[in-house]
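Need tokens for this chain, all 500 residues.
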Amino acid sequence: MTESFQKIKTLGDLKESGWESLSVKEEMRRNLIKKMHDNETLFPGILGFEKTVIPQIQHALLAKHDVLLLGLRGQAKSRLLRLMINFLDEYMPVVDGSEINDDPYHPLSKYAREIIKEKGDKTPIKWIHRSNRYAEKLATPDTTVADLIGDIDPIKAATRKITLADEEVINFGIIPRTNRGIFAINELPDLQPRIQVALLNIMQERDIQIRGFNIRIPLDIAIFFSANPEDYTNRGNIITPLKDRIDAQIITHYPKTIDIGMEITDQEAWTKRDNGVEVIIPHFIREIIEEMAFNARESEYIDQKSGVSARLTITAMELLVSSAERRALMNNEKKTIVRIADLYHSLPGLTGKLELVYEGEQEGAVNVAKHVIGKAINKVYVRYFPNPQLRDKEGKNDYSDIISWFSRGNKVDLPDNLDLKTYKKALKGVEGLENFVKKNSSKLDNEEEKLVLMDFVLEALHQNSVLGKDDLDDQRSFTDMVGSMLSDLGDLGGEFDDFE
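Here are the structure tokens for all 500 residues:
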């Protein structure tokens, strides 16, 4: 039917077609109902909100409400807002040349009224796509009423040789230019209170008045907002009369399970590179990445009111893959697998996304990020292997052979950029390590994954204070814990010997 509408060029053609004029909210309601009847995915790409946020949005659209999405950063609020255009008709007719998308049946602007009066059924019609019926404004302190609503344009008056009292001198702002569409304001509390006041009439009476003009322009518009709850106290607030006029406040949230978090990260992260290097990501590594975010959202070092964005796991995953990719390129390998060392190369993706409290600032961003990674490693590790802290009555456990090898003064060096052959040789040199992994891993996809699991065991033993680790910029060395401590004491003793 859209194709036939595209052939409609005049107001007369439009009347003959039988096209009916609907308000934006009625149009969205009708299309939502149709999508529900057809079992369409309402918000493609949005995961984890199926039983919480999305049903509430459906309720609001069915009720023809304006909506505020309230949630911490990185909870897909902006993406949800931009997907609202899917509930608009694909094309909509407007009076050709209109600045405010005038309805040919109900023109608002002076321009549209006059051209219809002059040309009647021969008035030219233009069809605009739904993507052009959405406008978004990031609320910033410098936003003005003129930006949103409009103002008088003296240059237009001078050019056209008309007085400032003429309606045609109005320069419309972004809201009236989105007439018969969807307008969204991101981070609403950042908008100054005096500017928020300008929205009151639009929210309730659906009209605007510009400067001293004795006219009101009734707009047909659906308005959506996003806000961070912390903004109410830190940077600004939503004035009470405006909050009262927003029909529905819907609270968003972070993924509630590791599996949903992994789905989101897998969907959003750029992991399939195009340089001829295949990077394999073991499933347990994906779990660790997700646990990093979950741990950060519980950490006493991190400001929980600020939130930990889902972008943390996406960025960390991309850096992780880049680290493996770089190693493969340096060793001229066509295929590689993500290793434990690569987890620590995701640090830049964490440090900039964690808002620290005072205790966290004292520790330092890097140390807090390493703590988050280490805790995630531990949590995932015990899903696959025995807990290193558990021992029998004789003080032994499944790790005795491995620990015994290190206690004899042995150590293993694992530089970050080791080629696969050398990496394999280093790990297999640890007595008891390979047998332990084989015994506790019923299914291994490939030899490379077995090596990473062996690496995983060593890292987990360190995280549980069983093995010592020297962690330089590009190399990890695992040693006996007691030997490592005595070595450190020996170094201190050597320093004090100079004073004897």
